[in-house]
Amino acid sequence: MASIDDYRVFIAVVEQGNLSAAARHLHCSLQTVSRVLASLERELGVELIHRTTRRAQPSAAGSAFHARIKTALADIDLARSSLAEHGAKIDGSLRIGGSTQYAPVHVVPLMAAFMERYPDVDIELVVDDGHADLLRDGLDAAVRLGELPDSRLQARLLGHLRQIAFASPGYLAAHGRPRRPSELSAHQCVLRRSAKDAQTWAFTRNGKPMPVEVDGRFSANNAAACNAAVVSGLGIGLAPLWQVRGLIDQGLVEQVLAPYGLPSMPVHIVWPASKQLPARTRAFIDFVASRWLAEV
Predict the structure, then answer these.
(1) pLDDT tens sequence across 184-220
(2) Membrane spanning segments where (predicted)?
(3) How far apart are the C-alpha atoms of 247 and 245, rounded to whole Å?
(4) Among the CATH numbers 1.10.10.10, 1.10.260.40, 3.65.10.10, 3.30.70.60, which is that of 4-82?
């Protein structure tokens, strides 16, 4: 049966990009990495890595397995850290990163609850919509939205955020309500240029992919600007539900194409890899993870 160290070899192969780089990263031989990877694939009965002479690319199964196993190993490391620091005083300062729109509404209340439980901890929230370098910027942890790029950071999946299509009542009155995704070709759509594949909206129905190409006269590289454009009647938009729930409650926009699904957005808390986290950082990660289900 595979050991924890075997799983760490697999993670290194995915994140380093090839077997030789993984061997250097782990300070072991190329033969050891190759043997461990082959043994894992035999045990699991699936190809995890597509190998070429220069690259090691995860298969679809390998990518899914990497995401799950990295989260599991992060939890194990936290548990070990917790044991090592059992009874340690929770005090000191934390610098936590978050996004400009999401963090004030959804992360700050968790920080307030954490500070109430641990009155000797101070927290500085650093808001930034980019993926800040935690070590360079002196961050102890960060809450990040969306898929994580390959990273040597530790990560813990907190949950997923639902995404919807929506439009203003005025736009729908003037142009009609689409009943199926294919009808969007006849509509103006507000494009979020900062999103991956901004002009391909990946709807699903009963698990069946239904991607559609969309276009429109207005686009922006900012979520708030795109949502405001939809409110102003410039077209149909996509957004995480948390961003537009207040607009829906006020009657400024309405959900459209509700029977069709859209990709959800993962939320992670990430932190620098370390053999032993400070007690305050570990406590904050555990606290956020334990409270998150009630928040999303």
Answers:
(1) 999 999 999 877 777 899 999 887 889 999 999 999 9
(2) none
(3) 5
(4) 1.10.10.10
